Amino acid sequence: MKNDGAFLPLSPATLHILLALAGDDLHGYAIMQEVGRQSEGKYKLGPGTLYDNLQRLFQRCWVEELGRRPADDDPRRRYYRLTSAGRGVLAAETARLAGVVREARLRLAKPRRA
Amino acid sequence: MLRSLYRCLLRLHPPAFRTRFADEMLSIFDQASGKKEALRLLLDGLQSLARQWTLRPEFWRDSSAPAQLSVPDGIPSFLSIDPFRPRTAAVIHGLALTAAVFCLTCFAIRYSWIHVLHVRIPEFQGASPRPMQSSGMAANQIEDQIEEVKTRPLDSLPQSPSPLMTAPDRAKATRRRAIATRAISQTLTGTATPAKGDARGGLIEKSHLEQAVTLVPQASHSTVLIASRPPQSYLGTYVSQSPERLIVSIRQQGGQLVVEIAGTPKGTLSPISETRFVVNGVGNCWIEFVPDGDGAIRRLNLFRNGHVVSAQRR
What we know:
The complex is a heterodimer of chains A (about 110) and B (about 325).
Chain A: H1 12-23, E1 26-27, H2 28-38, H3 47-59, E2 63-66, E3 79-82, H4 84-109
Antiparallel strand pairs in A: 1-3, 2-3
Helix pairs in contact in A: 1-2, 1-4
Chain B: H1 2-11, H2 15-31, H3 35-55, H4 88-111, E1 123-124, H5 135-151, H6 167-189, E2 203-204, H7 208-214, H8 218-228, E3 236-240, E4 247-253, E5 256-261, E6 267-271, E7 276-280, E8 285-291, E9 297-304, E10 307-313
Antiparallel strand pairs in B: 1-2, 3-4, 3-10, 4-5, 5-6, 6-7, 7-8, 8-9, 9-10
Helix pairs in contact in B: 1-2, 1-3, 5-7, 6-7
């Protein structure tokens, strides 16, 4: 996507949500659990923050809501899926972060001149 | 209880957000284990509420609501009322602004040094354009006021405002007390002056009590008195039946009734009504003549310093 770079860098919450949805279609509570697992419990996403971000992701068409759900599931739950546009943005952000990490490693590897 | 609170928080969110996410947020709350986790979610809900109303105006309106009324095919429809509705945010801002302006105005009225809003509204008395024509009514008012003052002597008026009173009530009580004090002293000393409002066709600014005292000028007293009852009917010596045998003698000197009460200086009588007189020169003293069945006066009541002494004509 051409305009992927316009939205970068992503906020930590948006990045974690997109990352959580990159693996599977999840409902809200599962996204929160997945974010906690990815960050090893260092980043806790509350429902307010989650749905505030989801609201904007819907608007940008990065995430869509699934109509179908498992029959035995809580009817209040809704499932979300990452769209191709969202996947592209996540890829662009990952590439950006990879560059940052590479640059940081290079700089940290060099001994500092006194 | 925490669940109810959380539910209330969700209800306070903007309609679009609430419609789309409230149920799912509540399901997440139901899955929370422990009070600590529930409190954390409650705090998160508060933050979300503030965030949605302050930072997300673009999501306030429910996009799922129909934008226009559907028109049935072939049937013309007319809209006579503009379907425009103000945004919720605009209504909230307007409410907050109105409340702020109202509070500021109240504060300014209460604490301003310049009382531009202190307007005195004069009392209108259409039935008594001229004071002398209303002397009969004035006499009635005077009687009523005297009765009130007599039954409620000055000592019964509150000496100091009650701590339970509000500031305006306290000021009103103080003002009423001052007016009553002035009216009584004017009446007792005979220095009452005609009311300012007389020349304004019945617009009288003074209070009823003050007006009652001042509407009857000194010069007209004897006229009213002589016209209604001859002064000779009051003359004589009155002796009380009480053990101290108080003697009150009333004479006529130079067209005025003069009263002599044993143990007090001489004073003149100013009529308030046909039977009631103020004793000028003696503080807080009134005389009421009590006529018999045939109209002759053979008894008087002396009101002095809150005490009443009855005396029979000798």
